[in-house]
Amino acid sequence: MSLFVPKFDESVIVREADAEVVGGDPTRVRLLADSSSTGGALSTVRVTLGEGADGAVPHLHRNSAEMFYLLDGAADLLSGDDVVTAERGDLVVIPPGAPHAFAAVPGSTADILIVITPGVERFEYFRHLQRLRLGEATLESLLEVQELYDNHYLRSEAWDTRR
Fold first, then answer.
1. pTM exceeds cut of 0.85
2. How confident is the model at residue 2, as a pLDDT?
3. Is residue 19 over pLDDT 80?
4. Measured between alpha carbons, how far is residue 30 from residues 47, 97, 127 in Å?
């Protein structure tokens, strides 16, 4: 087992009022800390989902684990071949290489703190998703940067059946 020691000299402090927000109803993403500000230790965002709103389609990260902590509400999370429902206070950690997705449970909202470790520069990925939603980018352009953001899309029968 190798040990990764992040390299940064000062604490990272992000005030809610200063966090960049991308998206809008029903999916809002607060960009909190990117890999470059944490010496590669982690990347973290807060995702707020309206009732039953989708968060992310099935995908995997080859080089990072992803943690989901439910601040409020309830969310369905794809974890490998299973779909689990997480509620306020629940924690789900997806290992590298495992398919995953998330969405608010139908009839419920979800407020989720998401951490990827080790970190990957993800802020530009979320900005890319925003451009896609606004019609300023194509789906093909997102597929072209899967390797850059270690975000590899896939199909999941378990997710399709549940959602």
1. yes
2. 61
3. yes
4. 6, 25, 11
- Taking the C-alpha atoms of residue 163 and residue 160, their distance in angstroms, rounded to an integer, is 5
CA distances from 111 to 10, 153, 161 (A): 28, 23, 24
Q: How many residues does the chain have?
A: 163
| pLDDT, tens digit (0-9, with 9 covering 90-100), for 60-111 | 999 999 999 999 999 999 999 999 999 999 999 999 999 999 999 999 999 9
CA distance 7 to 58: 31
Structural tokens at position 65: 């684990």
